[in-house]
Amino acid sequence: MILSVNGIAVTVDRDSSAEMAAARELLRQRAIDLGLLDAATDDNATVEEAIETLLDKEVTTPVATEAECRRYYEQNPTEFDSGDLVYARHILFQVTTQVNVPEIRARAEKTLNDLLREPDRFEELARELSNCPSGQHGGNLGQLARGDTVPEFEKALFQFGASGILGALVKTRYGFHIVAVDKLIPGEKVPFELVHEQIAERLRSRVEERALRQYVSVLAGRAEVQGVDLAANASPLVQ
Q: Which SUPFAM superfamilies match (predicted)?
């Protein structure tokens, strides 16, 4: 079926969708009806400017109150956690399709046992044996947060009470790692005052999106739209 709005054919751009194209045409026609746009204008920038003026005029977006922001803050605590941080080092014994895996593992196990007896040799052995570029820096990985590494490595880094050279190899898709956790800094909840504006903007964006959908729905309910369902609703949901 051909996509059209009030008898006007609508073209869908490659980066758009039928719903978005039809909604834009509804808004364009509404802007023309209100005298915000000349019907003969086909300049995209001019059309977009007229649609923005239309939305400013007819779609009201309330500002979130401090109480609403604070309620969101309390109901979504994990969003405002600064996150755990860890300072770590490692020595990587890389596993590739060409290597003898049992031999590489045995070599890693021997090195780990040596380091558990002589932890001060970590930097020396990292420079000598590690297949990671960090080996040139004594295996130092610097500061890491959750999500910075592959999951299996992250689990070892952030396991409860992990510190010093871990007593077992860590196996990842890259190979076998000897891991030393030098410092773990638990995350803290960011104070409400520091994220108040961020929350207010997030809530405003949500309300704005919902109000725009409702506004387009009202326009669709008053129009003849073919080729797409814009959830037409003839009642004035947005005043």
A: FKBP-like
Alpha carbon distance 173, 4 (integer Å): 52
CA distance readout (Å), 123 to 137, 142, 233: 8, 14, 69
pTM: 0.52
Same-domain pairing of 176 and 101: yes
Work out the burial of residue 175: count CB atoms within 10 Å of its CB; fewer than 13 is exposed, 13-18 middle, 19 or more buried: buried
Domain holding 197, by residue range, is 4-66+193-226
Q: What is the DSSP string of 14-44?
A: TTS-HHHHHHHHHHHHHHHHTTSS-TT---H
Instruction: Check the CA dihedral 61-39-45-42 and report its sign.
Output: positive
Sort 62 into a burial class: Cβ within 10 Å, 0-12 / 13-18 / 19+: exposed
| DSSP conformation class of 10 | -
What SS3 state is found at 5?
A: strand
> Would you state the pLDDT for residue 238?
40
The neighbouring-strand residues paired with 221 are none
Q: Which residues are 89's β-sheet partners? A: 140, 180
Please report the pLDDT score of residue 237 as a whole number: 40
Task: Write out pLDDT tens, residues 185-220.
Answer: 888 888 999 899 999 998 988 888 888 888 999 899
Per residue, what are the HEC states of 87-113?
EEEEEEEECCCCCCHHHHHHHHHHHHH
Kindly state whether residues 102 and 157 are assigned to the same domain: yes
